[in-house]
Structure formats: structure tokens, C-alpha cells
Amino acid sequence: MTTPDHLNWLVDTGERHATACGREIEIWEINPQEDAQIISLWARHLRQHYIADADLPFMAAGTGLAHPEYLRTILFPDAKVAPGPSLRSGDFGEILVADFIEYFRGFWCPRELRYQDRWNRNDSTKGCDVIGFKFAKQNDPGAADELFIFESKSGMSATKTNRLQDAINDSIRDRLREGMSLNAIKRRFFDRGEMDDARKVERFQNEADRPFHRVNGAAAILDEAVFAQTELASTDGTAHYNQDDLRLLVIRGPSLMKLVHALYERAADEA
Fold first, then answer.
1. Which of 57, 197, 236, 250 could form a Cys-Cys staple with 20, CB 3.0–4.6 A?
2. Angle 207-211-213 (CA atoms, 0-180°, nearest 5)?
3. How far is it, in rounded angstroms, from Cα 203 to Cα 34?
4. What is the largest CA-CA distance in the chain?
5. 15: closest CA among 2, 30, 6, 26?
6. What is the radius of gyration, based on Cα positions, of the chain?
7. Residue 130 burial (CB < 10 Å; 0-12/13-18/19+)?
């Protein structure tokens, strides 16, 4: 599995912050450089979460729209009209967290279906934000297999709320959403005839009969200015149901909303 080049710009700062409940928060940084080729590949990576390049000619045909305008007006969240911009930042954050757990933590993270099956471009997809699967032994399910469920919140403009705390609070709801989210992913694979992948998801649907290790995570993707104003020390995870396996992550970066819009525009222009 080849790691996308843009993830070379996502680095562990080595900083660790403590929460009010004594948990550790990992602090990572995304710091894009002036490299047009890597930015172009990153934009393509983003676009392919919404539609496969091979499917684009057929889906745009009949609309009277060129590929860039089809993406801007039919698939991508709106650049200006609310809630489009916040949905763009949210999708970007979820995709970056999915990249993180797939390429840095070794989980299988089938996330494209979450965005490709969206009916309304300006309405977020319901369910758990990011789900990853790890198998200790191929074709031999065991209790060491892992299910990783991450909730992601973006903070790319001034806010009075602690977005990491928001992610933790939302993660608590995953106890109810997990089963429905797994069913939705399995169903999407089934509808596409991808039965091997559907059965990989099925392995985690009955914990009583097929035990596995569950890990929960909460992430905040923050603009540097928001990060500087966020009191991470006040973050509290004591209400979470998975006390022993709750991971906390902050990814910070400069001018993130500007980056998000630039990636969406390039993703459309280069389609």
C-alpha cells in the first residue's frame, strides 16, 4: 500500500497535552508546501472520495455540464452558501483522519462510499465519521482483530467551543450508531457485488459470538489560530463508554480553510 505524497506533510510534532481527566492528546501538524504536483495528486485523492474518475464521464453526460461544473454544482459541497463551506471543512477533516488511521496506523478504512452515496451535496452523511478495520490474521478472525471508530470535528474559523470536546461528546453517540453504520457499509459493498469486502465488515457485527477489540477516537482538525485559542487542558473524556480505549488526536495547520477551498477548486478544474 503506497502512502499518498501529501501525507509527507502530516507530521507528529512530538507535543502531548494532558486533558482534565488525565488522558493524552497527540498533536500532529499538516503543513503543505509549494509543490504543484503533490497538491494536484491530493486534489485528485479528495475528488475520488466523491466519484471515481472512471465514472465521471457517464455521470456528467446528459447534464449539459462540463466535468468541473458538474462537480461544483452536483457533487461537491457549495463553496459559499451555508452549510456548504462547513461541510467542506468537515469532509476534509474526516478524510484526513481516515488517511491517518489507514496509512499511519494500518487500518483498512473503506471511506469513499460515505461520500459517493450522498444524495444532497450540502447535507452531511449520517453515522460514524470514520471506521477502520484491522485483522490480526488474514482469513482467521480472532479476538485481537480491531474495530476503530473515530469522530472528527473541524475548527477552521474562530469559535468559542473546544472542537476536541465536541468530538468526544459526539463519539459517545457511536455506541448507538455503530451497528447502523456497519450495516450501511456492508450494504453498499453488497449492492456493488463486492462480497469479500462485505464479509470483512460482517466479521464485526456480532461481538458476542465473534469477539474483537474496539478502539474509539476523537479528533479535532484545527487552524493554527483556533488551536492557539483552544484550552485543550479542559477537555474531559470521563463520560465516554470506552474508557480504556479512547484515543485523542489534534491536527493543526496554517490557513486550513484556504487550503480546503483550493483543493476542491483544483479537484474540479483538473477532472
1. 236
2. 100
3. 43
4. 57
5. 26
6. 19
7. buried
Q: Are 217 and 131 in contact (CB under 8 A)?
A: no
Q: How far from each other are the two terminal CA atoms of the chain, in whole angstroms?
A: 24
pLDDT at 137: 86
- DSSP-derived letter for residue 27 is E
* Grid coordinates of 211: 469477539
Instruction: Please state the domain count of the chain.
Output: 1
Tens-digit pLDDT profile for residues 26-46 = 999 999 999 999 999 999 999
Indicate the DSSP class of residue 254.
Answer: T
Residue type, 106: G
Domain limits for position 159? 5-269
| Mean pLDDT of the residues in the chain | 96
- The cell numbers describing 9, all together, are 506533510
Fill in the DSSP letter of residue 210. Answer: S
> Which helix (H) or strand (E) segment is 252 a member of?
strand 246-253
Residue 10 CB burial class (10 angstroms; 0-12, 13-18, ≥19): buried
pTM, to two decimals: 0.96
Map residue 164 onto helix, strand or coil: helix
Residue 214, pLDDT > 90, answer: yes
To the nearest 10 degrees (0 to 180), the angle between helices 84-99 and 36-47 is: 100
pLDDT score recorded for residue 112: 86
